[in-house]
Design goal:
2 copies of one chain form a homodimer. By secondary structure, chain A is an alpha/beta fold. Chain A is built from 12 helices and 18 strands. In chain A, the strands form 5 sheets. Chain A has a 7-stranded mixed β-sheet, sandwiched between helices. In chain A, helix 5 packs across helix 6. The longest helix of chain A is centred in the middle third of the chain and has 40 residues. Chains A and B meet through helix 7, strand 8, helix 8, helix 9 and strand 14 of A and helix 7, strand 8, helix 8, helix 9 and strand 14 of B.
Chain lengths: 364, 364
Amino acid sequence: MRVNGEPYRTIWVDEDSWSIRIIDQTRLPWSWHVPRLTRMAEAAEAIATMRVRGAPLIGATAAYGLALALREDPSDWGLEEARDQLLGARPTAVNLRWGLDQITGAVTGLAPGDRAAAAYERAGELADSEVATCRRIGEEGLPLLEALGRERPGNEPVQILTHCNAGWLACVDWGTALAPVYQAHDRGLSVHVWVPETRPRNQGAALTVWELSQHGVPVTLIADNAAGHLLGRGRVDLCLVGTDRTTREGDVVNKIGTYPKALAAQANGVPFYVALPGSTVDWEVASGAEVPIEERDSREVTHISGLTERGEASELALVPAGTPAANPAFDVTPAGLVTGLVTERGICEASGSGLAELYPEQAG
Amino acid sequence: MRVNGEPYRTIWVDEDSWSIRIIDQTRLPWSWHVPRLTRMAEAAEAIATMRVRGAPLIGATAAYGLALALREDPSDWGLEEARDQLLGARPTAVNLRWGLDQITGAVTGLAPGDRAAAAYERAGELADSEVATCRRIGEEGLPLLEALGRERPGNEPVQILTHCNAGWLACVDWGTALAPVYQAHDRGLSVHVWVPETRPRNQGAALTVWELSQHGVPVTLIADNAAGHLLGRGRVDLCLVGTDRTTREGDVVNKIGTYPKALAAQANGVPFYVALPGSTVDWEVASGAEVPIEERDSREVTHISGLTERGEASELALVPAGTPAANPAFDVTPAGLVTGLVTERGICEASGSGLAELYPEQAG
C-alpha cells in the first residue's frame, strides 16, 4: 500500500539484493523509519521488540532472517543455531515456526554453497504468497462494499467499522479486514472507516489510522466505547474485522473488544464480517469457549504511550502505582454473531459446514 | 464515604461555620486537595473547571455559592448578579439552575439581614436531601447484592461491573450505582468491582477506582474493551451503572460505552441495573432515539492525561495532529436491555408503567 505516495510492502529485499528492509512499526505513527537488517540477530531483534508484528509478517521476517544466517554460515550447525535463536524471539507466534520450517525444508539436502540462494528464493515466495492470499481476501470482500455503494445516494461513502489493526502493516501487503477497503478505494468507491482506538495497546489509533490515511482512505478515530452508539444510530453500513484464530465451527478469537462490537452490530441489523486466511482456522478446536485467553501485562492498561508537546515519545501512568488491573488480550465472538467469513477462497457462513465447504481437505 | 480512613462528603461547611470545603476532583487520583471556597466567584470557578462535577454536587455547590454571595451582598441586586454568574459557570447543568432556584425561593421576601443565614440553611438541607436520596438508592439496591451473596460458595465476592463514575464523588455522598456497593461492603458482604477505564475521559480509572479503593472496596481496572469478555466468561454477577437521563419509557442515556455493556450482559444472562434518583427521569421524552447526543471536543479522544515517571501531571497526543476524531459523550441503552431501575422509591421495571407506578405524580 502507499506511504507518502509510494507503494510499499512491510518487508522487502534491499537494492543490494541481499539485505532486508522492514518498517519499524514501534515508531509509528510518529516517525517513518525503514531499518536495514544485515544479520540474523537483527531479524530476531525486530521480531522480539515488535518492530514487525502480525502473523504473516513475523513468518516472512523469520524466513528472511534464516536466509541472512545461511549467508554467513550455511552449515547444518549454523542452520540449527539460527533456527533456535529466531524461534526464541517470540515463542508463541505460530507463523514464526512455520516460516522457519519452510526455509529449512527448502535448503535441507542442498550443498552448503547453494543454501543461502535457495533460502532467499523460498522466503521471497513466502512473502509473495502472503500478498496473494491477502489480495484474494480483498477481491472476495470487495463485492460486499460495492453492493453497499450501489445502495448509497450520490457518492456518499460506505461506512465501515473495523477494530484493532488488520491492515497491511500486520501482513506483507493489503491486510485482511482492510484488503477489501483498499481495493474498493483503489477502484474509486467512496469509503470511510471508523477506527476504534483499540485499548489497551491502541493499535487502531497508532497503526490503522496511519496506514489508511497514508493510502488516502478517509478515517475517523473513535473511543472503543463509541462503536455501539454509531451502530445504534445507523452510522455504520458494515463491520469488517480480522481474527487471530477461528475455530472449525466459526467462533472468532480476535482482539479484546471485538465481541461487544459484534453484539451491537447484530442488535442493529448491521452485517459483521470477519476476514481471514484459511491458515488461521484452528481445525483442532470446535468452540471458542475452549480457547484459553492470554492475560497480558497489566501495565498495558495502567500506562499509555504517546507524544509530548515537544514531540518526544513518552509514557504516562493513568492510575496510581499498585492499582490492580486485568488485561485479557482477546475475546471470542460466537459464530452466530458473524454474518460471514471472508477468506482467500470466498465468503462462507461462520459454521462448521461453511468452513468445511471451502476447506474440504482440512475438515476431513 | 471514607478517604484515608476518615468519612467525607464531597462538599461541607468548614469549622468556621461559613466557608465551604470541596474536594478538588481535577487533582484525583494523584493528589488530595480540599480547597476552601470563601467567595461566590470561587464556587463558580470550581463548577466551571470541574473541580466539582456530577449533577447533585453541582447543584449543592451552586446553592452554597449563592449563600457565600449573600454573605457579602444580600441585596436583590446582589442576589441577581450572583445567580447570573453561577448559572454561567456551566450553562447546560440542569441541577445548577435547580440549586439556585431553591436558594432564591428560600430568601425572597426575607429582609436582607436574614438572607445569608436562610441560604446556608437551605443549602444544607439540599445537600442532606441529596445524601438521603442516594442512601435510599443504596438501601433499595442492597438486597440485589445480598441475594447474589447468598448464592456464592464460601465468602467469594459478588462480582459487579460498573461504568464511568456513578459514585459518591459525583454526588454529595454514597453515589447512585455505587451506593448499594458501599452499603453491601459496610455490612460485611464480600464484593469486588470491575471498573472500565471509561475512555475517553477515564472517569472510571481516575475516580471510581480511587473512591472505591479509599473506602476499602476491592476493584480491578479494565479496558472498556474487556467488559464483554468478562461477561462472556461468567466473571460478572451483576451490572450496576448510573444515568444522566432516563426517558419516561425507561430508555437510559448514560456515558458512552454503557450500551455495549448492556448488550453483553443480556447476551450472557447477567442482570443489568441502572441506579438513579427520580429527579433525573425526563418525563417529556418517551424514546431514547429522540435524545440528541452531545458531541464533545475531539481532543478528549486524541490526547490523554496522566502522571509522568517524575510524578508530574502531563498530557500526551495519541495520534498525529489533524487526525479526525469523533467524540459522542453518551449513548442510549434501550429499556429492553435494562433488568430494572433502582430508585430512592424502590426498584421498578424500565418501562413507562414501571416508572409511573413509582412516580404517579409525575407520570400524570
